[in-house]
Amino acid sequence: MARYDATAMQPAPLPSPISWTRWLAVASLLGLIVLGLAWELWLAPLRPGGTWLAIKVLPLCIPLAGLLKNRMYTYRWLSLLIWLYFTEGVVRAFGDAPPSSWCALAEVLLCLLLFVACAMHVRLRFRNARAATAAAGG
After folding, report:
1. What are the C-alpha distances in Å from 23 to residues 9, 28, 53?
2. What is the pLDDT of residue 47?
3. pTM higher than 0.90
4. What is the rounded CA–CA span in Å between residue 63 and residue 57?
5. DSSP H/E element including 129
6. Who's near 21: CB < 8 A, 6+ residues apart?
7. 3-state DSSP call for residue 2?
8. Which end of the chain has less neighbouring CB within 10 Å, N or C?
9. What is the mean pLDDT of each run of 10 residues along the chain (138 residues)?
10. What is the pLDDT of residue 6?
11. What gap in Å lies between CA 135 and CA 80, rounded to an integer?
């Protein structure tokens, strides 16, 4: 005789806002890596056939492991590193020809999205830690 498990029939809980910010940060970082490679190798390279400027995505590969392991320190320093890519995107959006300027605008948007995701993630995790400490009587 099979037993009825009432907990199995309930819908799964919605992911927490911290989980959303984590996955938003990972997705926008992956988007920046893919965009940077595609931009410099196929979409609008400075020279036909691609350029060595594609190596600019290598520093973006380093924080990916930290984001996937949910390390707070990675979110904090990535929110500072991303402004270098934002600056490059703004400069190239106004200085390059249209195919490249469109890629630059996409880079700017992804940088802003990544910054907001990192900042919100850090803020929410600190708020939850403070609330847990207060609830524990500290």
Report:
1. 27, 8, 27
2. 86
3. no
4. 11
5. helix 98-135
6. 117, 118, 120, 121, 124
7. coil
8. N
9. 53 75 98 97 89 93 96 97 98 95 98 98 94 86
10. 52
11. 32
- Interior angle at CA 110, CA 85 and CA 75, nearest 5: 75
Q: For residue 47, what are the CA distances in angstroms to 33, 117, 131?
A: 20, 34, 54
Pair of tokens at residue 6: 């009432």
Stated length of the chain: 138
Q: What is the largest CA-CA distance in the chain?
A: 72
CB-CB contact of 107 with 44 (8 Å): no
Angle at the Cα of 62 (from 116 to 125), degrees rounded to 5?
40
Look at residues 26, 27, 51, 29 and name the one whose alpha carbon lies nearest to residue 38. 51
